[in-house]
């Protein structure tokens, strides 16, 4: 059966939205994909997917985006029952806490009993070719984990 993958993104100036769109394009031939902006995402619905990919920028002083706070709070209440997941995001090395939102989301999805199937990927601002290769590698790992 075709696996279902939900891609949830937070993006203020468009980089992470573009990454989410790229992931969808990479995955669409082999999975049913749903792209959701994080303020519209329901953490309690994640179990309906075979895998979840979260794409987020970092804001304030190494914090989650404001619009991701509700999703993150709900995540603490959810048992993901080993739902497969991966996390990535564009943020900026100009800030001290580079990509901290990626760390927080990775830690929480693990704590919520998700199964991490790819190393988390942090991208400095606009992705370069090497970054896109890392994004594609993450997508491949997610697909491979679903074929197991
Ligand atoms: C007010 C502000 C605070 C930020 N704080 C951080 C931070 O603490 N750590 C970090 O890595 N990036 C930080 N960033 C950088 C963004 O995460 C980065 O520009 C990211 O690529 C934006 O993604 P988007 O285009 O999807 O919105 C900050 C950006 C702004 C505007």
UniProtKB/TrEMBL annotation:
Instruction: Report the cofactors.
Output: FMN
This chain belongs to the protein called Flavodoxin
Taxonomically, which superkingdom? Bacteria
Report the sequence similarity comment from the record. Belongs to the flavodoxin family.
Q: Which UniProt keywords apply?
A: Electron transport, Flavoprotein, FMN, Transport
Q: Which residues form the Flavodoxin-like domain?
A: 5-143
Record GO terms (molecular function): FMN binding; oxidoreductase activity, acting on NAD(P)H
Q: In which organism is this protein found?
A: Levilactobacillus suantsaiihabitans
Q: Which Pfam families match?
A: Flavodoxin_1
Q: What does this protein do?
A: Low-potential electron donor to a number of redox enzymes.
Which InterPro entries does the entry mention?
A: Flavodoxin, Flavodoxin/NO_synth, Flavoprotein-like_sf
């Amino acid at each position: 059966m075709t696996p279902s993958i939900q891609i949830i993104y937070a993006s203020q100036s468009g980089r992470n939205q573009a990454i989410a769109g790229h992931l969808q394009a990479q995955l669409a031939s082999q999975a049913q994909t749903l792209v959701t902006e994080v303020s519209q995402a329901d953490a309690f619905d994640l179990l309906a997917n075979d895998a979840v990919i979260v794409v987020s920028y970092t804001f304030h002083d190494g914090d989650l985006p404001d619009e991701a706070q509700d999703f993150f709070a709900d995540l603490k209440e959810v048992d993901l029952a080993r739902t497969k997941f991966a996390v990535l995001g564009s943020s900026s090395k100009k800030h001290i806490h580079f990509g901290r939102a990626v760390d927080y989301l990775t830690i929480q999805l693990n704590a919520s009993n998700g199964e991490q199937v790819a190393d988390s990927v942090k991208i400095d601002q606009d992705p370069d070719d090497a970054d896109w290769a890392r994004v594609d590698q993450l997508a491949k790992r997610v697909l491979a984990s679903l074929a197991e």
